Amino acid sequence: MHIFANPARFLSIARPATPWLFWTGLVVLLAGCACGLFLTPADYLQGDSVRILYVHVPAAWLGMGGWSGIAIAAIMQMVWRHPLAAIAGRAIAVPGALFTAICLASGSIWGRPTWGTWWEWDGRMTSMLVLLFLYIGYIALARASAASGQSGGVSRVTAIFALVGAVNLPIINRSVVWWNSLHQGPSITMRGSTIDMAILWPLGLTLLGFTFWFAAIVLMRMRAILAETKVEARMQRMARDAAVGERVPA
Amino acid sequence: MNHWPFIIAAYGVTIAGVLGLSVVSWRAMRSAEARADAMKRDR
Fold it and tell me: For the Cytochrome c assembly protein domain, which residue ranges apply (chain A) (predicted)?
């Protein structure tokens, strides 16, 4: 990771990687969605609504994966003072919040035909909603610290908030085991899947496609923050030079 | 119950959200990098 500590080196990799990730992600995603919508059979119990799985599950994983990335960036910022870690944390926050919101929305839409309700205050849905609020809090803190001159990064308080918020991740993961829930139990674990392969296989494609898109959005946002930081630093230098010039007697 | 309106709504929300954020992020990146390049040229 320290190899990317130099922004110029990071940009030399990020510039070609951004369009590649975006377009590859789009192709893989379209293929996965098409297969999930038209090639897989309907579930014997849930019927066609099971097809929502192909967008809901990647959104949930990326919502949680995004916060994991923010927490790792916070550790790198505080322990190694990695110059790009805080910028990466800021860049991940908005797409992470978006995927969490998509997970909640698609889950709610899926719940109506399957459970007969749009929403239930159970462990899984409530802890996922808490994750969305954590993202909103992080975005607000990161913006405030960027406005107070953290040169594109986030303050120490924001990084600590990210680490404290990571406590919610195992709660989300174990919520369907710890509490009674309308939500099904863990169906994809390290030991395998309880979902039949006839339904499961397009999930790999949509997961890969969404992950590529997530990465492309994060790179775009990091590049934007780096460019804005460069402009800001240059303007501050110009203002300082102008102030010094005014003080020098003619 | 016909499930397809729910499926279309779930996919619609997802694609609109991700595509919208991609466009916003791309435009922000392009304008920020253009400003940085213009400043470098003016130096």
Answer: 28-183
